[in-house]
């Protein structure tokens, strides 16, 4: 009987240990439900509170010593101008774009090719659709890897920065 008890106790411990390692059981991590990665942009969706995601993105930018240059209130602008353009649909519950630059990465990019100024500022957009409450989307444009090898390397570094900011914010 004692051996049977020990066997069941061991099986229970194994079961608890296995469940603790399953994705989604980490208490500090929010589940990423969707990632769409195409040539020109990356979009991630998380189920979370909009303001929490905004604060997380702002924090991840600031943690890298980068200052946000501006905020575009795209959702509010669309609501404000809806009547003037004959809009019949309110698309976003929330929608903001944060623009910023890294002086180090931007300088490297523009020293490699002065015309790479077109890639600055970098923009991360955070939005929640009216039709999908609780699904928070984070989107950013990827810089095209163009020009000389130095240009391509510096533009890739900007893409890596954007990936890192979003990964840190949602994980």
Polypeptide structure, described:
- By secondary structure, the chain is of the alpha+beta class.
- The chain has a single domain, classed as TATA-Binding Protein, CATH 3.30.310.70.
- The protein has six helices and six strands; from the N terminus they run H-E-E-H-E-H-H-E-H-E-E-H.
- The protein has a six-stranded antiparallel beta sheet.
- A hairpin with a 3-residue loop joins strand 1 (32-37) and strand 2 (41-47).
- Helix 2 packs across helix 6 (149-170) and helix 5 runs antiparallel to helix 6.
- The termini are far apart.
- The model is unreliable at 1-29 (pLDDT under 50).
Alpha carbon gyration radius:
22 Å
How many strands, what sense, and barrel or not for the largest sheet? 6 strands, antiparallel
Total individual domains = 1
Portion in helices: 40-55%
Look at the structure and give the mean pLDDT: 85
Strand order of the largest sheet: 1-2-6-5-4-3
CATH class assignment? Alpha Beta
CATH homologous superfamily grouping: TT1751-like domain
| Secondary structure tally, helices | 6
Distance between the termini: 46 Å
| CATH architecture call | 2-Layer Sandwich
Outline the low-pLDDT stretches.
1-29
- Strand-pairing-aware structural class: alpha+beta
Total strand segments: 6
Stated plainly, the CATH topology is called: TATA-Binding Protein
Overall geometric form: globular
Strand content: 15-25%
- String of helices and strands: HEEHEHHEHEEH
